[in-house]
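quick one, 258 residues, struct below
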Amino acid sequence: MKIVSWNVNGLRAVHRNGYWGEFLSALSSDIYCLQETKAWSEQIPDEIKQIPGYKSFFNYHKEKKGYAGVALYLKDDMEVKNLIYGTGHEDFDKEGRVIGADFGNWAIINTYFPNGGMSDEAWQRKLAFYDDFLEFAMNLKNSGKSLVLTGDFNVAHEEIDLARPQENEGSVGFRPEEREWFSELLALGFVDVWRELNPDTQKYSWWSMRTRARERNVGWRIDYFLVSEDLFAFVTDAKIHNEIYGSDHCPISLDLNI
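---
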């Protein structure tokens, strides 16, 4: 089974600029997880709302158009026990940041975590969301489910995960509080798959568009696949697809032998 995750930074823009078809052709997958779709369901063109051979599900900001939003595409033959829309925290759930599928003995959760860099209030809200998500994920895990967590976590965990760690000390996305939260999540029984398979490799999934950072490869790795420890034995590959354009993020993929 292949799972692909991508922060598209505007699903309609990816389609309008001709990258949608290229993305699907390059990365054939059983499950697609998209973040920052920036569209209500009725705004999405039919040709990207419905991919032949897949069923699609969307969660979007209930109050703001063009903000946040996540999507999940599953192959038609995948039997879903329950769909998951949000963590159950009403205030956060209205922002359309979480969508998932429960297959019974395992589940996948696709999340667009807050950036937190606009103001102190936004920063505090990011930390609150992290805490809420941690509780949500652990409740699922403790219920006996194996888990795949994916999406744009909006944090670089270690110095190896960004090109200029010293220059970014104290920057949102690399602050001690959010890095410690990520470490706690791992300590509670999750594996950062790509890093586990590539312990010494520097490779990034996001680059600032303001500074032409992608051309210079001055990036951050903030997009992840985490799996519960029991699933890691079934991982066969994980990749960061720097060759695919269309967003300020690139897609990532996970192969599982399940």
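The two ends are 6 Å apart (CA to CA).
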